[in-house]
Amino acid sequence: MIVVMKPGATKEQVQHVIDLVHDYGLKDHPIYGTDRTVVACIGDKRSVDKGAIENAPMVEKIVPILAPYKMASLEVKKEVTQIAIGPGQFKIGGTKVGIIAGPCAVESAEQIATVAASVKEAGCVGLRGGAYKPRTSPYSFQGMGLDGLKILAQAREETGLAVVTEVIGLEQVDAVAEYSDVLQIGARNMQHYPLLEAVGKTNKPVLLKRGMSATLDEFLLAAEYIINAGNPNVILCERGVRTYEKYVRNTLPLSVIPALRDRTHLPIVIDPSHGTGHAYMVPSMCLAAVAAGADGLIVECHPDPEHAASDGAQSITPQVLTELMDKLRRVAQAVDRDL
Amino acid sequence: MIVVMKPGATKEQVQHVIDLVHDYGLKDHPIYGTDRTVVACIGDKRSVDKGAIENAPMVEKIVPILAPYKMASLEVKKEVTQIAIGPGQFKIGGTKVGIIAGPCAVESAEQIATVAASVKEAGCVGLRGGAYKPRTSPYSFQGMGLDGLKILAQAREETGLAVVTEVIGLEQVDAVAEYSDVLQIGARNMQHYPLLEAVGKTNKPVLLKRGMSATLDEFLLAAEYIINAGNPNVILCERGVRTYEKYVRNTLPLSVIPALRDRTHLPIVIDPSHGTGHAYMVPSMCLAAVAAGADGLIVECHPDPEHAASDGAQSITPQVLTELMDKLRRVAQAVDRDL
Amino acid sequence: MIVVMKPGATKEQVQHVIDLVHDYGLKDHPIYGTDRTVVACIGDKRSVDKGAIENAPMVEKIVPILAPYKMASLEVKKEVTQIAIGPGQFKIGGTKVGIIAGPCAVESAEQIATVAASVKEAGCVGLRGGAYKPRTSPYSFQGMGLDGLKILAQAREETGLAVVTEVIGLEQVDAVAEYSDVLQIGARNMQHYPLLEAVGKTNKPVLLKRGMSATLDEFLLAAEYIINAGNPNVILCERGVRTYEKYVRNTLPLSVIPALRDRTHLPIVIDPSHGTGHAYMVPSMCLAAVAAGADGLIVECHPDPEHAASDGAQSITPQVLTELMDKLRRVAQAVDRDL
Amino acid sequence: MIVVMKPGATKEQVQHVIDLVHDYGLKDHPIYGTDRTVVACIGDKRSVDKGAIENAPMVEKIVPILAPYKMASLEVKKEVTQIAIGPGQFKIGGTKVGIIAGPCAVESAEQIATVAASVKEAGCVGLRGGAYKPRTSPYSFQGMGLDGLKILAQAREETGLAVVTEVIGLEQVDAVAEYSDVLQIGARNMQHYPLLEAVGKTNKPVLLKRGMSATLDEFLLAAEYIINAGNPNVILCERGVRTYEKYVRNTLPLSVIPALRDRTHLPIVIDPSHGTGHAYMVPSMCLAAVAAGADGLIVECHPDPEHAASDGAQSITPQVLTELMDKLRRVAQAVDRDL
Questions:
Q1: I need a surface site. Which of B197, C268, D132, D160 has the fewest CB within 10 A?
Q2: The domain containing residue D268 runs over which residues?
Q3: A94 and A26 share a domain?
Q4: Closest CA–CA distance from residue A214 to any residue of chain D (Å)
């Protein structure tokens, strides 16, 4: 941490800051520049709220230097973590790019059976589908619950696909962990810490979605909560962020791929469905994500999007998915990977 | 809802959309303009995901017309809801503006006793303070828990102030409801629906903070969840939104005050501490909020901000609070209200 | 400037950075912390692009310390600059808050005569109105040009109000300087540097609007361009920034008032019309701005907003303005100022 | 346009809106729904400011239906416009993806000769380089001006590359048009309308950069200004938008590629240098852009980025460029295009 003093800070004011730095258990290292004084603070104290020093007289700002997370960082591990999922133990984070597809919500056994067969046939490794749905409106369809989980488990049985499904509350963690292969934490719950700790105590991989306006630090600290609770198998999922742009549901910032690769060893999956909100944009964003180095994709796919119970506008059909897979494979190979 | 067709949509494509509109239980009303056709859809179906229609061929966009919330809206109730809080039964939403102050976190009985006395003396009506702290980092101070709640209850006993404190998980709802007067839902939990439903089943008023990039529709739908679960006493709290601006922790959009007043009957409280992130900005934003018509303020105040366990940078001292209260009263009177 | 090295940077890599620091004419001051090395750079070189050092191996980031502007900063001048405008030489930046009002565009001599009389009668000090209009669409009304300027000058003659009008291109600077009292630089032109330099060579005060997503540094650097060209009379104008929020045309961040006051001696004017985009929100934002310490307001006012050639949605009527002025005066007095 | 009335609007209030609609030369078509009335307005009047109707009593909002631009839209032309640039008349918008590279600023004849040779050798079709630099700070390097233009023209002579360079003011339009092949309008000038009109009167193709927080409508209206002035050869360039994200200089929203393709016939070029701000992110974003369907790339490339006069942090070296070109070609072929 660096404390930057305002121009004109007196010796006493600098000393007051130095005293505060000591109070926080850090060593001071003042530097007297041409225009102003800065106090570098030495020591690894990630847990204290040093921002408080900003309140001292004539302090202009506090500049943090250390990343606030540790176990998720490259300081701990250099190579990408590979996380095996589902019956096939496909390794997310390996050379092959894993494609996960399926509907927003589980609507019926027939719907899932149809989609799962198509998804498998197209060459995907995972099946997504929500049994518990966090809905913005209390009047929207809230999911099939436990019945939905059983339908998903049945589809896994039949196809060998890894089942990825969301857990929205503490009370469902056990059931979701029992019936599925990957526990998804949705964007709205990225900072619901009790839930992060609960999935951190299971032995199932966690797909952690980035909050809709979370910073990378906040995203990696959420992963740190899960790892810190005992579960190192965290898959990071970018699903777009909220910006001023209106032609998309969210803005999909693919530069998180190199940025996260520069900061963390955790594998990275992209969700171009929520990342755009419109089915017609999904294929090109899938191709772009793979070209940029994503370790996987998670895509909404519905046999009849015009009648989908949720997220119809952003769901592609099984036919579009099948055609897309061929191009995805070619792009993956062009960047020395494969599907 | 209005379905806008692309230019060149054929009669069959328009008919396909009309059929879909019927599938969703709505009546169609097509309008043939100079350049394009739009299909107005008539009927009150707030619960279905009509976005799916966007997937039909040659549909350009879907324009919603109805607000998605109902009980929180002015359609149901025109006058501002007054919500009585604490031992004094001060009415948030009445003519008087209610000021709530206190530290970010309960740190000790002494700290709270000191602050509570100052807050009471300054003329505030409520005491804030977190016993359970949702912290971005797993390594940060997480709050005193039940002991913190008891300390707050003791302060209420001594001062008559209403206690406002956050509940971050389902398992604490009962305890927080027992010891406090107002249950706060933090910004990070604004869309944690199980928690909204749980506080909706208590009989204590709820202070609902707007999520850090929530739209007004999402904010009011979160309120709707609580009301829908049985608790009509929801106080809306704006605490700033995330934007590209870096000189503040959050951007405080005071225009939500007239905008919410135009949409909802629920009372509106402003949090200029999180809304700016810097103590030196807090007094002017308090004055601005009252001038703009806020029903209350919630302000972080700490006897020794330089050593605060959390949010020190944005906490004002009791002395600054006392001086501010006098100006706040004058501004309130200038807009025909009072403290 | 501080150069932060990544963990594991070798001695040679640190030395390479130190050599670069010297190449840029700065002195190095390396600090060896527990986890990483940082190189503080000493010397006042605001003009070089030091970001280039980021490209050196094992550099994590560059942290600037000095503000990039100088003449606009408090380092040069502590007290607020007072800028006298118009025939009455009203001082923007003095104790009194100056209210400027008028239509978006000059539409006719009658329209301006009517508005100017109302604006004067209400107690305002300035008349706004666009003769040259920068319009988003080439098909929109582009202003009356020179005729519009003459109409405004005539209104000044009759009322004594200071005329504030926009200059959108180099070729109009002379004419606008001749006929008006304050040259407005619109938000879209905040970074059109040739124009900033041109108005910097006139002897008329400049009202500089903040760009719609400009940072405070960029805003103050635009002011610096004007001052650097020879014109110290720059009035800063906040008109709202672009965010994800949709219920407003722009989000009005009133915390710029304390933030700018903490950084610059230039006076601050708020534009709640563009800052909200909706007439019904304008009065409360005017009151809030004055409570927060604004030195002035610039408000769109039209006798018949429903038929205005531009910005009708955000224009208040003369009647609303008149009623508002009384409340504004009371709020100004409540914060120890006046109108 | 659709006018949405508030619930409870009276017959007279609806009639008042209908009268206004007529005043604006439109035909009315009222629809009486279950909860509220909407008035659809029929007629093609893109030039009037219909927002004014929002001011009428009991109007909730105005929903525009028509796109505000016309000549840039697909309504006028379905197939992608191909724009031939430079001595080689490479067609931007054709099957082949055109790569343009070069330094941010022209610094010397030697620098440009070196870069141009590398850029040509690597297989690019254009050379970028700024002779006139719009700089945020008045103290930064402002470019070599006319000498810089001559250096670029010399490089074209030697390599056959198309020269792309920025024009920042009216007074340089002629010179830039004389010496270069493509006139670049920078992001800061996207809404400087006099300049758009001036380049619209030249016969050189224009590369129009999207403003840093422009909407797609504003972007396409800026293109419309140029086309409307007589120049149909507009290349759209996305260079990232400003968001809350801090790990990048700008957020690069690659979903503009399918979104623009859905709205306009103009070709699309991506600038991953400004779109990220960091050299290490540039290669993956180049690959992603080509996979997503970009018609071209414009990339900053400098032989010695650590000493670049500007934008050093985001410039890749000629060596990185050369290695990248091979991968780009493979990705282009994977999506049925080529370099």
A1: D160
A2: 83-334
A3: no
A4: 9
